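User: quick one
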Amino acid sequence: MSVELVTTEANREDRDALAASPLAVRGLTVSYGEKPAVFSLDATFEQGAMTAIIGPNGAGKSTMLKAALGIVKPVSGQVTAWGEDLEEMRARIAYVPQRATVDWDFPARVLDVVMMGQYRKLGLLGRVKTKHMQTALHCLERVGMDGFADRQIGQLSGGQQQRVFLARALAQDAELYLLDEPFAGVDAATETAIISVLKDLRGLEKTVVAVHHDLSTVAEYFDRVFIISTSKVAEGAVADAFTQSNLQKAYGGRLATAQMGALG
Amino acid sequence: MIWDALTLQLGYNATLVTIGAALLGMAAGATGTFLFLGKRALVSDAISHATLPGVALAFVVMVALGGDGRALPGLLVGSALSAAVGLLCVSALTNRTRLSEDAAIGAVLSVFFGFGIVLLTVIQSMNSGRQAGLESFLLGSTAGMLWQDAMVIASGGAIVLLLVAAFRRPMTMVAFDRVFAASLAMNVPRVELAMMGLALAITVVGLKVVGLILIVALLIIPAVAARFWTDRVGHVVISAGLIGAVSGYAGAAVSATAPALPTGPIIVLVAFALFILSLLTAPNRGVFAVVLRHRRFRARVHVRQGLLALAQGQPIYEGLTLRLMRRRGLIRADGVATELGRTQAGKALRDERRWQLLRSDPAYEEAAASYDGLTPLDDVLTPDQLGALDRELQPKGVF
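Assistant: Done. Structure below.
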C-alpha cells in the first residue's frame, strides 16, 4: 500500500494559511528528557481572534506556548509568525508568563517591571525619556493599576501581580499577545479587568492566545479553542470545536460532569 | 597609625593600594548584586577557588621560560584561564547532566582547589619557589605591592564597573524574569555567562588584595547588606558599590598599618560589620524595624479584639489584651471599661457591623477585599458611600 504524498496544491494552501496566521506551528515536538510533553503539533492561530488553549494538567499547554516562542527548544518542528521566521517578527509578539515563575521579593517597583516591556525600544544604553514613562503609566491605567506605579512589587496581591504582567506586555505594543494562565488564582475584579483589556485588544485587530484552565468561561471569553492533550485534539471556533466529545477525548475520566454543564 | 592610613598619609604606594582596593570593592559590590539577585551567588565561590591551579601553573611556566615567576600580570592571566575552565565545568555539569548547580559547584570548587594546593606544595619544594610567596594569593596581602600591581587592580575594577553599568538592563531582566527575557529573544545563557565573566574578572583582579578564599564575600556581602536599605535594583547596585568601596578602603588601610595582617580577612570583617549594621538598623527590612512593626500590629489586633469583646459584654481572658487596654486607659485595673473604653468599644462594634453589611453586598465587592478586621471603614469608603451604607443599616435597627 502506498502513502499518497502531499500534493503541491495542498502545499500551497498551507503556505497561504501560514502567511495569514500571526502564529503557526507545524510538527512541533517538545520533550523534557525522553517523554514528549507535546507531540507533533500543528496549530494555526487566527488573526484578530481570541483563542483559548485548553487541556488537562500536564497536557503541554504552557510548553506549547514556550516552544512557539523559542523559550524552550523543540526536538522538531517549525514555527512561523505571519508566514515569516519567528525571529524576524519578535518585536510584534508580547508574552505574559505565569506569575508564579518569578520572585516577587525582587527589588523593583511596579513601574520598573512595566518598563521592562520597552526593553526592545530602549536597547542596552538608551536613555529613558518622558514618553517611555508615559507609555508605561498609560499601560498601568489600562489594567486598572494607576496609582500603583511607585508600589514595591512585593506588596501586590496575586491579581495585581497578574495585571502588572499584563501591563508589561501592553508596553511592548505588539500585534500578538500570548498569555500563560492569566486567570489562574486571581480575584474576580482582576479577572474582569483582564478580560476587558483582552477584548479591547481584539477590538484593535490584535490577536490573543491564552492558556486557559477554567472550562466554564471558555465560551464567554473566547472565539476559538485549541484543545491539546500532548497532541492536538481539536482546533476551531468555540461553537464547532468546544464539544463534549472533544473534551472527553482530551480529559478522559478527569472531566467532571459539573464542568460539562458549561457546554450548556 | 590607623588614622594616617585612613587619611591616606602612609606614603604613595599604600595610598595607591588603598584607592585600588576601594575601586575593587565598589566593582565587586555592584557585580555581586546581580549574582545575588539572580540567585547565583555560590557560582562565584567555584570561580574563585578554580583560580589557584592557574596561578601555580602560570608561575611554573614563567620560571621555565626564564622569567620572573612572580610577575603579577602573568599570574592573573593564568588564574583567569583556569577560573574560566572551572566556570565552564560548572555550567556543563549543570546543563548537560542531571546534577544540580550546587552539586556541580561543590565538585568543581574542591577539585580545582585541591589540585592548586598540590601544585603550590610542589612549587615550594622547587629552588625558585621558596620566595615566591604564592600563598599570599589565598588570603590576600598588600605587603610588598608594587605600583604596577596597584594600577592593575584599580584599572581592572574601573573597567568592570563600566561593564556592569553597560549591561545592567539585560542582567536585571534575566535576574528577575528569565522566561520573559527569553521571549524577547534575549540570549539568556549568554547574559548569565557575561555576568559570571564579570565575577571572574573581579576575582582575578582581587586575587592579590583579597585572596581567592574570601573574594566571594566581597561579591556577596555588600549586595546582601544593601538589599536591606532599598527596594529598587539601581539603588541596591549603588549601595552595594558604596559598601564594597568602604570595606575595601578601610580593610586595605588597616592592613597597610600592620603588614603581617592578611588583607582579605580584614576587608571581609569590615564588610561584615556593615552587614550587621544593615541587618539590625535598616528601616523597613531591618530586624529592629520588623520587630517594632510586628509589636505594633499585635497591639492593634489585641486592642481591637478587646474593644469588640467589651462592646458585646464578653469577658477578656488574655493577659496581653488586658495589659494593653489598661495602658491605653480603656479599662480600669479591675477590668471595668472606662468612659473612653466604652466610647471606643461602641465605635469598633459599629465599624465591624458596617463591614459585615458591606461584605454581604456585591455592590461593594472591591472595597470588601480590603477587610482585614483592623482597618476602619472610614479609611476605605468616602463619606458619601458611608452615609449610603448607614441608611441601609438604620431600618434594621442595628444601632
